[in-house]
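WARN retry 2 of 3 for item q-0093 after timeout on previous attempt; input resubmitted unchanged.
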Amino acid sequence: MKAMAGDRRWFGWVRRLIDYEPIRHGRLEMGLLRAAFAWVLAAGVHVHASGLRGQPRPHGFGRWMDFTFAGDPAWFEPMLAGCFVAIGLFACGLVPLVALGSVLVFQTSVSTLNLSQGSQGHSGQVVMLAVLGWWVGEFVAWVRGGGGWRGVVRSGV
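OK item q-0093 returned
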């Protein structure tokens, strides 16, 4: 019996360790945080990938997938405009799951194409990890809120 009681305490400790509880911030704090993060995202957007036609040195995801589509001007320019619109929507706290998801896909594909040219872009990796973390937080808040369209439109974090 004592062994089972010890197991329960251990599982309770592990559960508390991995349990997720979002930190509640005031509207002004969240607005400033979103604005600062949006500035970092906008400053880090790769705007010079248009016209890249190959992957001479595939790097990261580029070893598994061909990212030359990201250099096609017919794809790149509308997606770049959409990326800046998504950053603006995120800064306003609107459709964060869609906005951050689209920024994540665009930046990952363009950054991978740039890295496959032989360039160094470690700062982009750090920013994309932060975007992924924020997206996961929004997703968890959306799931815990019961899902639905209202949770998709407004930020839950």
